[in-house]
């Protein structure tokens, strides 16, 4: 019962009235034994009854909760108030106007740079001198170029046409072509998981919750290993790149770190600033009142995201970006792990394997000590924060997947192709498929034994990572078969290059849709699929625009700064 949000916030009061209308959403805690049993057995998602009201903005949250608490005690209701969220009409503040001005200026720069680029490309080459003036379009340096030509040369970094061409026409590396398919499908999986989880806020038919834990969608949505495919890919690609530079003595540690930070942080910062500052002004609805409380946390802890430590503290802004923090932390440690393999083969193997084992043991101990379930989808709200902070997002429980990627990259770089006969390859491939299916479709919601949960939490991530590593080695060395052909299709190249931005923006898109809805939805599986495809399309379209206008231009600018070159 959410009421009419739009009618409440647009309500006009007489001029002599000193207060304005304020939308209030009151969430309740189920205390009836019968209702509590129903909610606990029919769903693993923390769904609570909500009640929307339109009250004067002079009423405080504490007063509202206190009134309903007294009513609950008086009438012995089966539910009691737990949280109060309020929303008042707000106008753009100074920070919002500054950000809008900055974004507008960026668009103007891109438009001007694109226009200059088009004019230069279409200008005829009358003689050698005119041909000389067009060297900037070919991105070649000339010591005798004047200041104006240098400015024009740099301006081409922001040309939409040129950056679109770089994104769409660059030739893929034949050695790692299947990586694009793995990356794209992993991103689709993550969007599906978040779609299914976030849509529970809009359920108008609680009876559908009985079907929520049954079927194909349920199994793949409850699995949390999708992100570990990215850890494996990241470790693999970093290892290949680093070993190449170590081999030709061109590896430099300072540019290694600076280039990485510049590669992802500016785009990350722009998206985060837009989310923190502008989201609340453009996304309005009965569900947005809770999102606004998350934005208040971002106002305090945004700087932790830019330092990539937001996964090891109690303040979490843009919670899904814990992966970026963990990946950056692993990237910092990677040279030590990779160099040990490069310099001392057997010591390096042991060192890396011990790191994986340590991560497994740490996961088991933490899981057992705090009695964590086998997935964050099977944990109630009171323990969810503890599960997230101590186990799910921490680097010491996730580094194993990254190190598996490092070992895979080292194996591929040093040996090239797998030196195995066909029978052995088939046996390993069959085992990898069976283990992967077991991890995804095993009924982990039935694991109620403390020790069993600890074992599962300890092993499922490295086992999944090993299966993904085998898939990579199989595709890159055998280079034939339906799996290789599917993952190596050229159609995955561009979407694969958009996954970084798509990962950042897709939860914002899903949240904006959910929070702007005024009415609940009668949900079923076909509708979930429809929303997934809608969010998938919207995420990659927005990622395409941001990549071409922000990420690639900033990458181009790095060419003019020695420290940013790699």
From TrEMBL:
Keyword Transmembrane: yes
Swiss-Prot/TrEMBL keywords: Membrane, Transmembrane, Transmembrane helix
InterPro entries named among the record's database cross-references: Acyl_transf_3_dom (IPR002656), O2_lipid_transport_reg (IPR052728)
This protein's name: DgyrCDS13260
Domain Acyltransferase per the UniProt entry, residue ranges: 178-543
Transmembrane segments: 96-121, 214-240, 261-282, 349-370, 390-413, 425-443, 463-482, 494-514, 526-550
One term of GO molecular function: acyltransferase activity, transferring groups other than amino-acyl groups
Signal sequence, renumbered to the chain: none
Superkingdom assignment: Eukaryota
Keyword Transmembrane helix assigned: yes
């Amino acid at each position: 019962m959410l009421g009419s949000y739009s009618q409440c916030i647009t309500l006009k009061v007489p001029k002599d009235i000193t207060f304005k209308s304020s939308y209030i959403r009151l969430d309740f805690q189920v205390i009836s034994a019968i209702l509590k049993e129903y909610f606990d057995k029919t769903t693993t998602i923390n769904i609570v009854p909500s009640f929307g009201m339109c009250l004067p903005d002079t009423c405080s949250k504490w007063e509202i909760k206190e009134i309903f608490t007294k009513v609950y005690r008086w009438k012995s209701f089966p539910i009691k108030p737990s949280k109060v969220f309020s929303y008042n009409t707000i106008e753009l503040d100074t920070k919002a106007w500054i950000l809008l001005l900055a974004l507008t200026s960026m668009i103007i720069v891109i438009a001007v740079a694109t226009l200059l680029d088009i004019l230069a490309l279409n200008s005829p080459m009358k003689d050698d001198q005119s041909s000389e003036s067009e060297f900037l379009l070919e991105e070649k340096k000339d010591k005798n170029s004047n200041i104006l030509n240098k400015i024009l040369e740099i301006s081409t970094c922001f040309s939409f046409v040129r950056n679109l061409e770089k994104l769409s026409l660059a030739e893929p590396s034949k050695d790692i072509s299947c990586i694009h398919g793995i990356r794209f499908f992993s991103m689709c999986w993550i969007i599906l998981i978040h779609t299914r989880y976030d849509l529970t806020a809009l359920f108008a038919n609680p009876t559908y919750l009985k079907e929520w834990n049954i079927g194909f969608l349920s199994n793949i949505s409850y699995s949390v290993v999708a992100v570990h495919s990215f850890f494996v890919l990241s470790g693999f690609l970093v290892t290949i790149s680093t070993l190449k530079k170590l081999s030709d003595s061109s590896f430099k540690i300072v540019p290694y770190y600076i280039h990485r930070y510049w590669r992802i942080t500016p785009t990350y910062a722009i998206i985060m600033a837009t989310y923190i500052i502008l989201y609340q002004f453009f996304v309005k609805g009965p569900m947005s009142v809770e999102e606004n409380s998350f934005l208040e946390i971002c106002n305090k802890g945004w700087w932790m995201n830019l330092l990539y430590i937001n996964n090891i503290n109690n303040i979490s802004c843009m919670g899904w970006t814990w992966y970026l923090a963990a990946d950056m932390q692993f990237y910092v440690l990677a040279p030590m792990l990779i160099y040990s393999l490069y310099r001392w083969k057997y010591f390096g193997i042991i060192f890396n394997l011990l790191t994986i084992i340590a991560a497994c043991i740490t996961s088991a101990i933490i899981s057992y000590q705090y009695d964590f379930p086998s997935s964050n989808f099977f944990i109630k709200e009171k323990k969810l924060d503890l599960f997230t902070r101590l186990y799910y997002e921490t680097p010491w429980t996730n580094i194993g997947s990254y190190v598996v990627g490092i070992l895979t990259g080292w194996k591929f770089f040093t040996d090239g192709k797998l030196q195995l006969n066909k029978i052995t390859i088939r046996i390993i491939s069959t085992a990898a498929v069976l283990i992967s299916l077991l991890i995804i479709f095993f009924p982990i919601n039935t694991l109620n034994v403390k020790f069993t949960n600890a074992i599962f939490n300890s092993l499922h991530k490295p086992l999944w990572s090993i299966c993904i590593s085998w898939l990579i080695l199989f595709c890159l060395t055998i280079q034939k078969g339906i799996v290789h052909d599917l993952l190596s299709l050229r159609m995955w190249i561009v979407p694969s290059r958009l996954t970084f931005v798509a990962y950042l923006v897709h939860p914002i898109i899903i949240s904006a849709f959910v929070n702007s809805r005024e009415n609940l939805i009668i949900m079923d599986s076909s509708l979930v699929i429809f929303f997934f495809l809608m969010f998938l399309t919207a995420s990659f379209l927005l990622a395409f625009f941001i990549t071409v206008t922000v990420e690639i231009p900033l990458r181009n600018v790095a060419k003019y700064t020695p420290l940013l070159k790699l």
